[in-house]
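Researcher: Please translate sequence to structure tokens.
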Amino acid sequence: MKTIGQMQLVEQEGVSFLAFPQLMQLSWLNHAFSTRLGGVSTGVFSSMNLNFNRGDPDEHVLENYRRFCDAAGFPFDSLVASAQDHHTEIRQVTADDVGIGITKPRDCQSVDGLITDDPGVTLVTYYADCVPLYFADPVHHAIGLAHAGWRGTVAGMAGKMVQAMQDHFQTDPHTLVAAIGPSIGSCCYEVDDPVAQQVLALHAIHPDECLKPAGEGKFMLDLWGLNRKILLDAGVPDSQIAVGKVCTKCHADLLFSHRVMGTQRGGMAAFMKIKP
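Model: Translation complete:
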């Protein structure tokens, strides 16, 4: 396997995906983050596009899901997808919800985080520069996936996921394992002053360490570092937070990036499942 950043690039059956070494050590868990490689989509969606409603025929997207699931070890009929819009709503799902967002219509709006302790469910969330957050409770065998762009990050999605797992599964943050997945890195993520001011408003966690002036009222924002600080503040030990350090813009040959491609592109997905 090839290493990219702090993640492993795995290839199975012609499909490539990324995984965290720390999560791979948890025998009860399966997880993955898709790449652009190994699907049937063409043109700007080439080739492993996992986003519906972008102009790629649904039959291509569904075939991509089938190929990805076969390669990465997720039952296709266990998928439950989010309904993201840069907020911090979190939904607990069970086997009764399988198919939602994939083979069944979404039944709600504004769900950027999913949690479960049901082995019959595979959680799915979507990305093209925003931050994927993975959560694994090794004591209660509960998991969570969350989407956090700058808005979700500033609104505390990482901490809200920790709290939701405490509320629903009695998760102890000190035993929780968290991982920060591929997204646009501080090397490439330029933001303007209004965004920087919202980041700086999180003064309790010293957010200034995650902003570097770039001139002309612009800043380079470190979403990985900011989410790590929020996780630490929520009680997750530093030694149990994995940072993938894979920038979507720097690796646009491997990953879809909104900053590189704009709206004419495919999208990636994070997957997480408790093994039976």
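Researcher: Any highlights?
Model: Residues 2-184+223-274 form a domain with the CNF1/YfiH-like putative cysteine hydrolases fold (CATH 3.60.140.10).
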